[in-house]
């Protein structure tokens, strides 16, 4: 494996009884980069992450392998846990303790001596803009502050790999953007990041490469901007007024504009903005949205637009 590859996964699979959670997945992650796993619930994202850091074992096959900085999770689970920091979906902080007490207890799990832990905690709290909260009780912290504190906790052991499982779910946009900026800074400092998220914009902002999964399999992979440019038309018209649909469909067919139904909203896709603008000539401003296509459009195209399709 090349020295600059942090994670190398070859033909990894995982079954739970008759359920194939991950099917023959292959990918690699260069050091100091972020890979984002996207997919509906049950797509296999979390299972794949658990295999990487040893929480569950892949199916044994001669052609299957996982390497994390040269370690195999099957044989070297503890070594991988020591070089990784994990931000789980739940904050699971001790609400009876204050910020510093929470972090000092966690430092003991990694055998970090108190004289080393204290300045490290102070530095990380400042980095995540929590320096004034070192004595605050967990109950006194907002949801965004608690989430940033969990990231501080994951960085305590100075990991080479940061695993982020839905890191900004439920947070307001300002906090979310602040966390994205911190993750970008951590990458520049040499940290490798493994991300799962339901926020397409999050993956677009911080992932160098995305893997879109569906029913345990990889359906698309590549840099986010390349995936959008290659897999979807440039512009999207969202029709919010259903009674105008049939007339617009006729016009769209004449111009070879693709039409899809996403729940109750009809979507028209075209390479030319002018073609879509012509479709809107008989519509009032509140009847439609005209915009650039994005990663979410690619995701829905690849995995299905209805809830039943995404299960």
Give the SSE layout:
Elements: E1 5-16, E2 19-30, E3 34-38, H1 45-52, E4 65-68, H2 77-83, E5 84-87, H3 99-109, H4 114-127, H5 143-155, E6 161-165, H6 173-188, E7 192-196, H7 200-206, E8 209-214, E9 217-222, H8 224-231, E10 235-239, H9 245-254, E11 258-262, E12 265-270, H10 273-279, E13 288-292, H11 295-303
Parallel strand pairs: 3-7, 3-8, 5-6, 6-7
Antiparallel strand pairs: 1-2, 1-4, 8-9, 10-12, 10-13, 11-12
Helix pairs in contact: 3-4
* Oligomeric form: single chain
Distance between the termini: 36 Å
State the share of residues found in helices, binned by percent. 25-40%
Number of domains: 2
Mean pLDDT, to the nearest integer, reads: 91
CATH architecture type of the largest domain: 3-Layer(aba) Sandwich
Which consecutive residue ranges, at least 5 long each, have pLDDT under 50?
Answer: 306-311
Shape: globular
H and E order: EEEHEHEHHHEHEHEEHEHEEHEH
Number of helices: 11
CATH topology of the largest domain: Rossmann fold
Which features characterize this protein?
single chain; alpha/beta; Rossmann fold; Alpha-Beta Plaits; 2 domains; six-stranded mixed sheet; four-stranded antiparallel sheet; disordered C terminus
């Amino acid at each position: 494996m090349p020295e600059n590859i942090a994670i190398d996964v070859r033909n990894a699979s995982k079954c739970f009884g008759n359920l194939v959670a991950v099917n023959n997945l292959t990918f690699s992650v260069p050091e100091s980069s972020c890979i984002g796993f996207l997919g509906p619930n049950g797509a296999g994202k979390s299972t794949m992450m658990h295999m990487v850091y040893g929480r569950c074992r892949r199916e044994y096959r001669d052609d299957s392998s996982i390497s994390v900085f040269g370690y195999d999770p099957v044989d070297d689970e503890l070594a991988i846990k020591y070089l990784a920091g994990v931000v789980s979906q739940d904050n699971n902080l001790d609400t009876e303790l204050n910020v510093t007490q929470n972090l000092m207890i966690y430092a003991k799990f990694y055998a970090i001596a108190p004289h080393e832990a204290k300045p490290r905690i102070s530095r990380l709290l400042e980095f995540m803009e929590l320096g004034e909260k070192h004595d605050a009780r967990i109950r006194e912290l907002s949801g965004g502050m608690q989430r940033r504190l969990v990231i501080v906790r994951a960085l305590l052991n100075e990991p080479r790999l940061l695993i982020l499982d839905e890191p900004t779910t439920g947070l307001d946009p300002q906090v979310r953007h602040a966390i994205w900026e911190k993750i970008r800074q951590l990458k520049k400092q040499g940290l490798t990041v493994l991300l799962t998220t339901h926020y397409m914009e999050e993956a677009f902002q911080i992932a160098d490469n995305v893997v879109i999964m569906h029913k345990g399999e990889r359906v698309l992979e590549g840099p986010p901007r390349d995936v959008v440019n290659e897999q979807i038309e440039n512009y999207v018209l969202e029709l919010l007024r259903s009674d105008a649909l049939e007339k617009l469909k006729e016009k769209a067919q004449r111009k070879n504009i693709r039409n899809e139904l996403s729940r109750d909203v009809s979507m028209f896709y075209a390479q030319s903005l002018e073609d879509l603008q012509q479709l809107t000539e008989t519509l009032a401003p509140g009847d439609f949205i005209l915009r650039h296509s994005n990663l979410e459009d690619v995701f829905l195209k690849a995995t299905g637009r209805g809830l039943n399709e995404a299960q």
